[in-house]
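Morning!

This is the sequence you dropped in the shared folder:
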Amino acid sequence: MDTPVASGTFTMYDGSITSNTATSVTGAGSVMLGTADAKFYMHGGSISENYGAGITAWAGTATLTNGIIAMNEPESPGQSAGGVFIMSGGTFIMEGGQISDNTNHIGAGVNMHSGTFIMSGGTISNNIGGGVAIGNLGAFYMTHNDARIENNTTFSPLANGGGIHVNLGTVNITGGVIANNSARRGGGIYLSSSINMLTITGGYIKNNVATYDGGGIFTWRRNNSTILPATAYSDIDIGEAVVFSGNRAGNGASAPPDNRLPHIAATTASIWGNPLNNYDINYTGRLGYEYGLSS
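The structure's back. Tokens below.
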């Protein structure tokens, strides 16, 4: 059953919360925050092997500084499960610890129906169903290179967004590592056709794999012209300090367009010094062409 925190504070230093079953499709398998003044601090121990989400924040604030949230999964199809589930009034702060080996149809590590997620440390890894999912105008902030989203896969080989899946919301990354994630499109990060915004000014996007396009990042607001208009890729803004490395896409690499966009300024790319190469960011205007020799 759920362990509700209707109000007040619950602090966990050690021990385990395990083998519980959520009482509703959006309930927690273990800890549930229900009001704005509810607070949960996890400094150690484990929340594991529950049916339903390890932590559900309908409201209030949950903070993870150490400990493990692992092997939580849905009891039945359609149930919100995985590591952490955030609703519109909830906030999740991750400063350390691990969220790993959880399972859900999407956002197996952290599933944001809305609300706010701030990640300055810790690791979200080896989850089946993707690392983080953002929907319904949720906001995700990744702020430090101690934060890692790695080795996550989608629930289905036909699904998108192995590391981060943005259905409707904003992502702001000033530091962190997004690595070794895999999906059909957007091995590292996937942006749907909804109104989204991805801003990255620092950090590393490396060794992610897409079986189709966009090993590092995939956006549906792509443009495959050889000379891009200024409005192309309007939902992403990438600074010069961002490092792309070792990303791959099953449809192959594309020589980049003839012009660079000021809002995609990263100069460290897996190939050709421009992340619009389909390995790093989906661009397929010149698939199969050898840059500098063919046009």
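Headline: The chain has no helices and 26 strands.

More detail when I'm at my desk.
O.
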